[in-house]
Design a protein that fits this description.
The chain is built from 5 helices and 4 strands, in the order H-E-H-E-H-E-H-E-H. The chain has 132 residues and is α/β, with parallel strands linked by helices. It has a domain of 87 residues: Ribosomal Protein L4, Chain: A (3-Layer(aba) Sandwich), CATH 3.40.1370. Strands 1-4-2-3 form a 4-stranded parallel sheet. The protein is extended and about 70 Å long. Belongs to the universal ribosomal protein uL4 family. InterPro entries: Ribosomal_uL4, Ribosomal_uL4-like, Ribosomal_uL4_dom_sf. This is Large ribosomal subunit protein uL4m. Keywords: Ribonucleoprotein, Ribosomal protein.
Length: 132
């Protein structure tokens, strides 16, 4: 016996999340990258190596860019330890590998800085057939 009566068919916890198809996710990534390119907010470098782990080097690089509030640095392989240490204290700079690039992170940042290796890996990822 319960005070107030029992709950017979009460709510059951479940996930209301939905998954997008792989083709739709790829198309979204293409559109987001194209939008940043059309705006002129996509910078391409050979590599993202910094001379030291000091944050002031990154701050100087970002001050040289015009009209930047949030910057996303995309590296092709593993992220360099010096770069990770240099950007750790900056809340407006994020560093991710190319495999972690998604539409949300591109749209959240107004400037996108990529390496050539990152672009090659993204292009390779776009051209691989979708396996079922």
């Amino acid at each position: 016996q319960f005070r107030g009566g029992a709950t017979m068919h009460g709510p059951k916890p479940r996930s209301h999340a939905f998954k997008l198809q792989k083709k739709v996710r790829r198309l979204g990534l293409k559109i987001a990258l194209s939008a940043r390119t059309a705006e002129g907010k996509l910078c391409i470098f050979e590599d993202l190596e910094v001379p030291s782990h000091k944050t002031k080097n990154i701050v100087q690089y970002i001050k040289q860019m015009d009209d930047t509030k949030k910057v996303l640095l995309v590296d092709g392989g593993d992220i360099d330890k010096k770069l990770k240490l240099a950007t750790k204290n900056l809340h407006y700079v994020n560093v991710i590998p190319s495999i972690g690039l998604n539409v949300y992170s591109i749209l959240q940042h107004d400037t996108l800085v990529m390496t050539r290796e990152a672009i090659n890996r993204i292009v390779e990822r776009m051209h691989t057939p979708i396996s079922r």
